[in-house]
UniProtKB/TrEMBL annotation:
This is Uncharacterized protein. It comes from the Eukaryota. Residues 1-17 form the signal peptide. It comes from Caenorhabditis nigoni. Keywords: Signal. The gene is Cnig_chr_IV.g13423. The lineage of its organism: Eukaryota, Metazoa, Ecdysozoa, Nematoda, Chromadorea.
Length: 232
């Protein structure tokens, strides 16, 4: 089985990238609007009323049905293929959501183009002429490498799916960044150390969310069984 899974993964991702490149139901303008108008999730509660463990539990307790798994992958792959592809797609999408929220709190323009991301060198980052360019390069170096497995057309609907089906992901990111921003209250991001610090917060938060999603995926079969729903 361990030898078969990589074959399934390669085939599924190849099919997904090939078909989604020709998809017409999600245009470039859709991607732009997704970044220009972020969902108004309830992530601005006071720290006393916000419980990150409760939000993480909402992720781990989520059950995704077969139609939902197929919808998440853009309905380009089916059944077991969708489940395998989504293991990698989920990790990428949760990071995209995190970077959307981080850019928003830092006051940087949204990234409306999640195409091929080339990992910049440390020398390129050090040579950045502006603080925003420095951030962009740090973001590219931090994003999970799975982002290059998929066509850009896959991401807008996948992000929209997460915001509707697992809103706790954006809630956690938004609250974490906004709460940190309130504590430090920087008038303007001009210090590279401040960018580095925020990237570190992103990484820590992403790790916890990704860990919760791994538990969700691991428990999904049993969850569907308990609900009496068809599984894979």
């Amino acid at each position: 089985m361990q030898k078969i899974l990589p074959i399934y993964l390669c085939l599924a991702i190849h099919i997904l990238a090939d078909i989604s490149n020709n998809a017409t139901n999600f245009s470039t303008s859709t991607a732009s609007s997704l970044n220009d108008s972020l969902p108004l999730v309830n992530a601005t509660n006071s720290s006393s009323s916000f419980d990150i463990e409760e939000q993480l539990a909402k992720i781990t307790n989520t059950c995704l049905t077969l139609p939902e798994q197929e919808q998440l992958s853009g309905n380009f792959v089916r059944s077991t293929f969708a489940e395998i592809v989504n293991i990698y797609l989920m990790s990428t999408v949760e990071q995209i959501i995190g970077f959307q929220e981080l850019r928003n709190v830092l006051g940087f323009d949204p990234n409306g183009n999640w195409t091929y991301v080339e990992r910049p060198s440390k020398e390129e980052i050090a040579a950045a002429l502006t603080i925003e360019k420095y951030y962009e390069l740090k973001e590219q170096r931090s994003i999970i490498h799975f982002i290059n497995y998929f066509s850009e057309n896959v991401y807008p609907p996948a992000v929209a799916f997460f915001d509707k089906r697992i809103p706790a992901i954006r809630t956690i990111y938004r609250h974490t960044f906004e709460e940190d921003h309130r504590r430090h209250k920087p008038k303007k991001i001009t210090d590279r150390k401040e960018v580095d610090r925020m990237i570190d917060i992103f990484k820590t938060t992403s790790y916890r969310i990704d860990d919760a999603m791994r538990v969700m995926n691991r428990n999904n079969f049993d969850c569907l069984e308990r609900m009496g729903l068809p599984s894979f």
